[in-house]
Amino acid sequence: GEEITDNEVEHAQIFYSGILDQDYLLKSYSSEKVLSLSELTLTNSSLRQVSLPTLDNLTSVNLEHNNLTNFSSLVYLQNLKYLCLSNNQITTFGEIPDAATRCFENLEVLYLNMNNIRNLEKLELYRAPKLVALFLHDNELCSVQGLSKMDNLKHLVLDRNKLNAINPSAVADLINLKNLYVEYNHLHSLNFLKELKSLKSLFLAYNKILEYETLHNFTHVSKIKELTVYGNPMCRFNSHYIALLSCLPKLCKLDGIQFDRNHNSPIYKFEEGS
Question: Which homologous superfamily is 175-273 in?
Answer without folding.
Answer: Ribonuclease Inhibitor (3.80.10.10)
